[in-house]
Amino acid sequence: MLKGLRIHYGSLKAALFFVVVWLFLALCWVLTGSHLSSLIWFIIPGIAFSVFAYWCSSKLAIIAMHATEVSEEEEPVLYAMVRDLSARIGKPMPRVMVSPYESPNAFATGRSERHASICCTRGLINILNERELRSVIGHELTHIYNHDILASSLATATATVLTYVGSWLVYVGDTYRRDIRKYCKFIGKFLNILFAPIASVIINAIIPGSREFDADKGSSEITGDFAALASALNKITYGMQLHEMKSTAGLQAVASLMIICPWNNNAPALVRLCTARPTVQDRIGRLMSIAA
């Protein structure tokens, strides 16, 4: 195993995530009177959410990015990179997705190594050369093989659902009479403001910020090219300024999975406060110090 690949107890953290969900439901049941007759109304949503989160969490991130799976015929260079780097370390090849967004970025998602996906935006593919793109793929593969993706996908799915509920309430509020409209829109905006940062809080709580350093190092060890990832991070940062990604309910949650948060500079203060990830400058500095 490469030094950059470290087991971060992703399965245990995912289990703890479900424990927290069920404890929250139990608390709600207690606060509503602890009646056995009402218990079923907490068990059924709990089971439904648990099954949905485990099996569909990665799909929500892909849907939010409007990404589609591509074949080797459609994206020969990108597909070959993912296949070759996966084979180099003897791991299953993830599915390859491409999002139409021009803002350069990438992320990995899925519930296991064998059910994982790597998603790159069209802007990323256009702005990076082959060395740099290979290094980004290596970074995302390291996240997959470090078992980071299950717990982070679960947290992101939770925040995505809740923020979409907020957006739905804002939209539905416009269709009702004035006295109901103001309450729906207020609750919807509150959920949008609150639950996007909660996604970052959950992810940062169950997956340490050092995972980005580990993924950067793992990528450099897989590709044997430390300088390429540093150059890629610089280009992505510049490209995000040229092509800013629109801040929607779904994308706010998915941002916590991306190689660089697309709204580091322009995000609301609460989002920046709750996103405790290493800065791009720190990551580039560490890569260059290793290369030296």
Can you give a write-up of this model?
The chain is of the alpha+beta class and 292 residues long. Helix content is 67%, strand content 6%. The chain has helices spanning 10-31, 36-64, 76-88, 122-127, 130-145, 149-173, 178-206, 210-223, 226-242, 249-254, 269-274, 280-291; strands spanning 68-69, 95-99, 106-110, 116-121. The chain has a four-stranded mixed sheet with strand order 1-2-4-3, with helices on both faces. β3 and β4 (116-121) form a beta hairpin. The protein is elongated. 43% of the residues are buried.
Brief write-up:
This protein has twelve helices and four strands, in the order ααβαβββααααααααα. By secondary structure, the protein is α+β, with helices and mostly antiparallel strands.
Q: Helical content, roughly?
A: 55-70%
Tell me the total number of β-strands.
4
Gyration radius, in Å = 20 Å
Average pLDDT score? 77
Q: What characterizes the major β-sheet? A: 4 strands, mixed
Task: State the separation between the terminal residues, measured CA to CA.
Answer: 23 Å
Strand order of the largest sheet: 1-2-4-3
Which blocks of ≥5 consecutive residues have pLDDT under 50? none
Assign an overall shape: elongated
SSE sequence, one letter per element: HHEHEEEHHHHHHHHH
Q: What class do helices, strands and sheet pairing give?
A: alpha+beta
Keywords: Cell membrane, Hydrolase, Membrane, Metal-binding, Metalloprotease, Protease, Transmembrane, Transmembrane helix, Zinc
Pfam families: Peptidase_M48
Cofactor: Zn(2+)
Subcellular location: Cell membrane
